Prior knowledge:
This protein has 471 residues and is mainly α. It has helices at 14-20, 23-26, 30-46, 52-71, 79-85, 88-100, 113-130, 135-153, 172-197, 216-223, 232-237, 240-266, 294-317, 331-354, 360-368, 374-383, 388-405, 414-420, 430-434, 436-441, 451-470, and strands spanning 157-162, 165-171, 199-200, 227-228, 274-275, 357-358. The strands form three sheets. The chain has a two-stranded antiparallel ribbon with strand order 1-2. Strands 3-4 form a two-stranded parallel sheet. The chain has a two-stranded antiparallel sheet with strand order 5-6. Strand 3, helix 10 (216-223) and strand 4 form a beta-alpha-beta unit. The chain is elongated and about 100 Å long.
Amino acid sequence: MKLWGGRFESETAADLAGFQNSLSFDQRLWRQDIRASIAHARMLGNQGIIPPEDAGKIIRGLESIAVDLETGRLAFPAGEAAVQLEDVHTAIEGWLVERIGEAGKRLHTARSRNDQVQVDTRLFLKDAIAGPDGVDAAVAGLQRVLVQVAERDGELLMPGYTHLQRAQPILLGHHLLAYFWMLQRDRERLADCLRRADACPLGSGALAGVPYPVDREAVARELGFARITENSLDTVADRDYLIEALADLAIIMMHLSRLVEELVLWSSAEFGFVELADAYATGSSIMPQKKNPDGAELIRGKSGRVFGQLVALLAVCKGLPLAYNKDLQEDKEALFDGLDTVRGSLRVMASMLATSRFRGERMEAAARDGFLNATDLADYLVRRGVPFRQAHGIVGQLVRYCLEKGCRLEELSLDELARFAPEGAVAEDVYAALDLRNVVAARKSPGATGDEPFRQQLAAARRLLEDKAGG
């Protein structure tokens, strides 16, 4: 059944019919399509655009279709039957007419598939991001694991890195909470995207609006939209909100990719900072000793997949004239794949991190090598009256001396330290300043790795999760 077949003398070519068919993927929109159609039918009846009794039949028919789809008594066809149905909208309308007869043919009054597709997609996106099983909940789940691991192992010492070179000692919890705040910004971006997507397009028609006394605001209220869209041309052509959603999803994957890259490095024998649970690693078909971080590597690889979906949709939209063009059918597979990939990656990431075992002795040993307390020796000299730039040079000379001698800064005698510094600049208390725990504790500025700022940050993270859960 073709909804538009009246003007045509011949059937669509079989290869084109299969090529343009979208039922195989847009059937995921069936709940949103039925929900929006019920609201539309109710409005048509209330406004006297169709007889109220027909509106009632349509609503009951759609509700029965929803029940049958939910329970499995009704299923979308595959193969040639699916090609003939064309898309989810055609399939549902066809079932409706079969069930209630001529009244079902009134449903599409004052509506185009253009604004119908848009309302379905906007409803789907809202559910997929903000629903109980949505992306936001999955991001919050990973944030919760980061907080839990930071509470459990957060006071372990480890090297902080710049240029992947050991730089200064930090707490493991400080490192983990860096990802908490990245993910928090991701959640804020998703919420911001939803504010722009939260507009009801029904009533825009194909492009120019509709010549019926529709009540767009009533439909918007029933469907839970904050407002209606402002311009009918823009409404049916707009995919900004999907591009924005994919951009937000791509940023989430970028953050996950950075985190799993560190787990891949840290789980190697060269680092030995963490051991992944057997459940989140795999072996080798030829090398019996291997334990590979395949889950982490797959998340890293799948980030490129989501980046690609974003670029694909940008490319689809970049040269389109107003208003609707068939190119825009390509938006759904990009969106669905992006959402599925991100949700799956977040869940695996959360479980993998929660079951990982951090090896504090290896991390602390690495932090004690590489002169990570060198900056603190310079700061000590500054407190003793030495200008920082001079102090920096003195400590650089001391590091070179230690490298030649094969020792650490804190292993030098007081006489050796004093030999490089101005007279009276070094005293016995220098060793306390060089102690690694004191080095970390000295970082007391807000947001720093010191013990107190870390506890404050952890408490702020907990409050944020509790507020979100309560709100």
